[in-house]
Design goal:
Length: 82
């Protein structure tokens, strides 16, 4: 899968925490940490708009799968937050 590159500036303290997650084996790279964090943020913001069909676990898994494969426009994500 081809991924886009996004430059992010973070405080030294945050980078140290990210590196700690990588060093302890929780994640394999800084990129994995940041991808997971963004997915979780988007999922959290979308959780309130999921339809309640009685199988929210399945819906959430499908949404996570979709989020991991699709490109997203930051402006569209920000609309979810508003």
């Amino acid at each position: 899968m081809v991924m886009d590159t996004c430059q992010v500036r973070l405080s030294h303290g945050l980078v140290e925490k990210i590196d700690s997650l990588v060093e302890t084996g929780v994640y394999s790279s800084r990129s994995d940490v940041l991808r997971d964090a963004v997915r979780r943020l988007v999922l959290d913001k979308m959780a309130g708009i999921l339809t309640n069909t009685g199988d929210s676990i399945k819906e959430t898994k499908e949404l996570r799968k979709k989020l991991s494969k699709e490109k997203f426009d930051l402006e569209e994500i920000n609309k979810l937050v508003d």
